[in-house]
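ingest -> validate -> predict -> emit
validate: passed (alphabet ok, no gaps, 193 aa)
predict: started
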Amino acid sequence: MKEHLPAWTHEWLQYGAPALKILLTLLVAWLLRLIARRLLRRVGEHYTLPPEMVMGARRVFTFVVYFTVLLVVLQIIGVQASVLWTAFTGFAAVGAVAFFAAWSVLSNIFCTLLIFTTRPFRLHDYIEVLENGEKPGLKGRVIDVNLIYTTLQENSGGHEGTVLQIPNNMFFQRTVRRWRDPSQAPGGIQGDG
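emit:
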């Protein structure tokens, strides 16, 4: 075919074939994703699956398709598989180190989600975080729950008006005693009205 084309096009042919392969790869990926979305929607309707599950499956499938397209395109361009594998393992190692370095923060964020879903206590409840069954623990009224800490306002023991910030993962490592009505709380937890 090269012989039938003008001489000025010969130089461009070396770029045209890979570009055509990349376009075909993208087209196949787009069609595959479209078919999968429709198939997942129909399966979800037929088996009455929760929409969250169907959406999650769509996202996972889309990620797999796009990641595969990226690998295929890099292969077409001429990147060797050993280079890709080296880059991937390097990034995975750095990600693992970063994950373990931030484990405490990630643990608190995950525990915040658990606090919001399992509801061991709510805002304005009076709680006590016990060290063990014998000693009194940290107690006060819950005034804030954020991604890292739960803030308790102390109202007894000579610490009136002070606040405690307790890491959220502590609520899953210790026993928590809860009173919704401050008048029922022993040990002098006083309500503010």
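The chain is about 50% helix and 15% strand.
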